[in-house]
What we know:
The chain is 25% helix and 44% strand. By secondary structure, the chain is of the alpha+beta class. The protein has one domain: Thiol Ester Dehydrase, Chain A (Roll), CATH 3.10.129. The protein has a 6-stranded antiparallel β-sheet with strand order 1-2-4-5-6-3, with helices on one face. β4 and β5 (104-113) form a beta hairpin. The chain is globular and about 45 Å long.
Amino acid sequence: MINEIYDRFKTDKFATELLNIRISSISEGRAKANLKVSQEHLNGVALCQGGVIYSLADFTCAMAANSFGPVCLSIENNIMYKKAVKNDEIMEAEAEVISRNNRIIECECIIAVNHEIRAIMRSKLLSEKT
Length: 130
């Protein structure tokens, strides 16, 4: 099952090719990924675009939530940016499912650089499972 989930997400061209996100691991209810910030990820003030950080967190939460099998899609996300991310820094994302009720899965993702938290996302996902 986990191998199928991994295969599904590694073919996500937006995440893995355009943003260059690398999947580190997927296990039941957990996922890890990373992204090295490059010039293409920077905004007008030479810091990593918030949307890139958001996409890394969203992608990692999606892997964790989908690790149970049924397809899950985000229905609500809330992200808090704690500190900017700069060029050449490597963001490590770690997501964990924190609750599963009926069809709603809640997940939290921590984005860190050198073990310093840069952003935290809380995500709610809807499972296709009835």
